[in-house]
Fold:
Amino acid sequence: MSRLLAYVVLAALVLLGLAFAVVNAKPVELNYFLGTREVPLALTLVLTLAGGALLGVLFSLGLVIRLKRETQRLRRQVRLAEQEVTNLRSIPLKDTR
Structure:
């Protein structure tokens, strides 16, 4: 059921994007360092959005990698602590009387 809802939402977003592109089909002049070019406004906006998303992913990649390493280190510590507890439980108790 949730997959169907996800597909419906995705289809609605695609239709909304297509409608946005049709409404904003007028060309605008894009000035960049090496020259100028006329491109549709919708394409300019979509490429800018995609570029920003890509830069966001690249900048957060370092944090994600650091957190994954820390998770691995903590899992290793938990595994060693569980082994130590298991070893301590298997030692027979001595009567001190």
